[in-house]
Amino acid sequence: MTTKAVGTQGEAMVAQYLRKKGYTILASQWRCRFGELDLVAKDKRGTICMVEVKVRSGNHKGLARDAVDYRKQEKLRTSASMYLAAHDWMEESVRFDVAEVYMNSGLFGNKIIYLEDAFR
């Protein structure tokens, strides 16, 4: 399976996870000239959540969240601003979440670790 296919599968898993938690998915793989937002969702309180999905499979070392470094955070902030402006939601409450997906993680299969408000 290609890296892109694994990423898409991970994003679908996280979208399903969020729906079960009562979130509404607003967008998936939303692109602008500055980058991509993996998922945009609205939680039960009405907060818009910009969700960065990081997938790990095999024997990768380190935590998936470590890939969301300062440079990646800046790209996500800029892309989020573009998304909010495009939908006239500049006054909405927003947060940045990170979803770690570990594929085939031991006896339990796939595992999702969801980090709310992972950065500002």
In short:
With 120 residues, the chain is α+β, with helices and mostly antiparallel strands. It is 29% helix and 38% strand. It has a 5-stranded mixed sheet, with helices on both faces.
Structural summary, described in words:
It is a single chain. The longest helix is centred in the N-terminal third of the chain and has 18 residues. Helix content is 29%, strand content 38%. It has 2 helices and 5 strands. It has a single domain, classed as Trna Endonuclease, Chain: A, domain 1. A hairpin with a 5-residue loop joins strand 2 and strand 3. It is globular. The mean pLDDT is 91. It is of the alpha+beta class and 120 residues long. It has a 5-stranded mixed beta sheet with strand order 1-2-3-4-5, with helices on both faces.
Keywords:
alpha+beta, five-stranded mixed sheet, 5 strands, 29% helix, globular
Write the layout of secondary structure elements.
Elements: H1 3-20, E1 24-32, E2 35-42, E3 48-57, H2 70-86, E4 94-103, E5 111-119
Parallel strand pairs: 3-4
Antiparallel strand pairs: 1-2, 2-3, 4-5
N- and C-termini, Cα separation: 33 Å
Question: Which runs of at least 5 residues are low in confidence (pLDDT < 50)?
Answer: none
Percent helix range = 25-40%
Class by SSE composition: alpha+beta
Gross geometry: globular
**Any idea how many domains?**
1
Taking all Cα atoms into account, the compactness measure Rg is 14 Å
Mean residue pLDDT: 91
- CATH topology, what is it called? Trna Endonuclease, Chain: A, domain 1
By DSSP, the count of extended strands is: 5
H/E element order:
HEEEHEE
The DSSP helix count reads 2
CATH class: Alpha Beta
- In order across it, which strands form the biggest sheet? 1-2-3-4-5
Strand content: 35-45%
